[in-house]
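Limitations

Structures in this collection are predictions, not experimental determinations, and the ligand pose is part of the prediction. Treat each record accordingly. The example that follows, with protoporphyrin IX containing FE as the small molecule, is included so readers can see exactly what is and is not provided: the inputs are given verbatim, and the output is the predicted complex.
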Amino acid sequence: MTGMRTPRHRARGLGAARSGTAHFWMQRVTAIANIPLTLLFLALLIALIGSDYGVARAYVANPFVAIILVLLVISGAFHMRIGMQVIIEDYIHSLPVKMICLAGNTLFSAMIGVVCIYGVLRVGLGS
Amino acid sequence: MSVRSRVRSRPLSPHLQIYRLTIPMVMSIAHRLTGVALYLGTLVVTWWLIALASNANSYAVFQDFLGSWLGRIILFGYIWALFHHMLGGIRHLLWDIGLWIDLPAASRLAWATLIGSTGLTVAAWIAGQSLRAVLP
Ligand code: HEM
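Predicted complex:
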């Protein structure tokens, strides 16, 4: 395909989104990380359903549990941001609306990530 | 045949509504929907962590919500979405490395995603309920 792309554009090889396969790859790396982390999270959930405040805090304050949760939040926040970006790009074609949605997606994912990490650390490091 | 009718009779890309639904198609849509559900569900996870970091009172409010019928449905649905999206994601990763990408294998994988996620969710739910009696 010769097409209308400039030689410089082709040489950079980064395609229309100007970031090449970085997002695709990040989605895969976070997906792999999410597998063990999610399984541990589900195990925690099963152990905690219905238990009282003190017990729940003690579980999350355990360093192993706290570190797993922080890792899951980091991996999950990146993963959900890229995933939702793909969905937005698939369905929203008006440029201004798309830009607003993409920005909102990034802000939402970052906020969820920061607030969750704050919560875990506050329990884990004692408040 | 005029030029016009020859142009007319070329095959068109069919609309989504007239495709016969196949199990890999439905599971592909389900992967996207569970992704969106998990995305929104992070709000509940955030609520849980902030309540936990705050005090016994706010934790009780959160637990009352999760214990309500709506809360239980959300929790069950969230666990199912997690298992389903995880198995669906593993399926994607297998395809990425070129495994089981032929049609019969893809159909079997799709069924495995559906049956596996439902079975695992029920197992997790039963485990959660029965551990109540044993754990503190
Ligand atoms: C449990 C482990 C998980 C695995 C193995 C996994 C795997 C994947 C993979 C491989 C994709 C790309 C699918 C494609 O290319 O069409 C994807 C998409 C997505 N994931 Fe995950 N994921 C996991 C957890 C999560 C979590 C916890 C969330 C949200 C908080 C999430 C949200 C999404 C979203 C929104 C998409 C986009 C869906 C789409 O494009 O149709 N995932 N996931």
